[in-house]
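Assemble and predict.
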Amino acid sequence: MKNKVSFIKLFLRLFFIQALWNFEGLQNAGFLFVIFPALKKIYPDKEKRKEILLRHIDFFNTQPYMAGLIVGLVAKLEEDNNEGRPVSGEEINSVKKNMAGPLAAMGDAFFWGSFRPLAAIIATALIFLALKTPLGISPILAPVFFVVFYNVVNIPFRYWGIVVSYKMSAKIIGKVASINFQRIVNVLRIISALILLAVMIFYVVSYSQSISRALIFVLVLGFTILWSCIRWPITALFYLTIIAGLFLSRTFQ
Amino acid sequence: MNEILGLSFLAGIFALDVTAFGQVMISRPIVCGPVFGYILGDLVSGLWISVIIELIWINAIPMGTSIPLDVTAVSILSCVWGIKFLGGDKSAVIFAMALAVPLGFLFRYFDIKLRFFNSGIAAWIKEGIIRGRESTVNYGIYLGLFLFFIKAFIFYFIFICLGQAFLKNIFSFIPYQFKAGLGFSWYLLPIVGFGISFFSSSLGKLGCFK
């Protein structure tokens, strides 16, 4: 693990962490696959390595982007363990499992609960701007923007996670705990809501064509928010809207 | 047939991004909708499908053991059926989307079945390690990846073929009034998407709505 090539190997393998996702061990085989090159380097003796590999095929689950933080730390702890520093196999397993849950919660809330929706909402705004304004924006830019904007954060984060947790070792736990993820998530959600509000107004103005149709759009919006408050199934609302369209078309077309 | 094989192959690649490989979000409707729309020669319908499905199911993403309906399958089938087989008319696209949503749930069903099957492969890896065959770690992962791909490829191939065989006839039986209604839903569904996304990014986080 002393040279950079190992980090790159771990990073590339991190993309496969869910390739064998299963209901018994979840990401267990994926985690082992990711850390395998590091374990091979740390434990050259095959017999000794067998015990370590079996230890790492235990249940494991976290948010896939956050897994790098655990992979780097576990690689470092295994190295310490092999070099005779006071870290036992049980302790390594315990650190691994105890970090997985909180990191999953952070990763889910940040990447999937707020950052991805923000990227999608900005891409949606770009689509409507491209379709309805003479700004000369190509609509194909919207999905390109989504992929670039999202991955320019997520892919380097995965690499950074491996490197920084390997270098900081156990100190990474305190470092991660000190990040106020909830504050970042709240800010992203507010930005998403504001952009969405602007897109909604733009859409109603651009596509309503008449006052009565604009009123229908506003009513559908209000009904959707009410439906969401009650937490009824979204799929049912989707079909209900299509049925509503069948009745309303007689009035408005 | 070659075109359907090609579309199914591409759909299988996109499907890998959902869980098995990468999660760089190319499988999200906002990406795969326009890509399939562009390939099939109707970018605008692809974009519209992507906006509707992305915003309505903005929170639908597999997290841990929770597996929602597969929005990638809904987007891809809506594009292929609506644009390629039904001509890309507004009512045709909404009709295709209405038929594709239950298949998103069917895809999820197969996904769950495969994830149970994967437990057996994980056990095989463990057995391999015990017997000193470390190569099972790599082979097991590549096998898992292949199975995720082949499941998606077969699924898309079957349903694209079925769409080609039956959809045009079914759609031609639909009365004009009904088609006009589907066309009007084209404008209503993005509003529903805005409402759901707005709720989930703001009001839905208030304690009283949790």
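The first helix of chain B runs from residue 2 to 16.
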